[in-house]
Amino acid sequence: MDWIQALILGIVQGLTEFLPVSSSGHLVLAQxxxxxxxxxxxxxxxxxMGTLAAILVYFFDDLKQLLxxxxxGEKDAKNSVLFLIIATLPAVCVGLVLQDTIESTFTIAxxxxxxxxxxxxxGGTYFFKNQPNREMVLMIAFCIGLAQIFALLPGISRSGIxxxxxxIMGIQHQKAAKFAFFMAIPVLLGAGLLQVISFEPQxxxxxxxxxxxxISSAITGYLVISxxxxxxxxxxxxxxxxxxFVVSILAFTFIS
Length: 256
What we know:
mainly alpha
């Protein structure tokens, strides 16, 4: 793994972690195209930490305010934290129980189909764009959490499926996106910890690709968050489905 490959994978991770187009699916495709049999557990952790850093920096003021209000015992803050916990638990439980099974699905053959499914789900939000705005409640948070389980499969976008379900259930566009981003914090942190636990120390590795991968994924991820929020606020979220369909068709056509 050289620094150029790490740079490319970092950009791919940063671009696709937050866009509704599946970062895991793109990393599988990118590794295949670059001829990288395995990106390496350590690099995967670094890429996840890069996109986690992007969220923490971008939403620093919001997260700080939420934390302070939660400490003060304010009802809205306590409800927000509860909703995030409820939405996170399903994927965490399934991920821990079926970890080996999930890892076996990271193949080109499965990714091709999952991209198509992501396109259908994201595109389906077009038919719900005039939903009356609803406030987040426990049931909606739980349904979003159930949807996130499917994002454990490569090619199913975590942000795509969680934002889509939130929009379909009537959550306002920017609130849906912000909730999905906040949900990503424990997910990315948990994924990194699991990879660290399973990490087997390698004798020979360079720190340069790791640094390059972290910086590229963090910067790219930060820029993507701002752009995605703008797209969602204009009610154009469903257009990402077209990209998913194109990637799926190209993968079926040119990658065996």
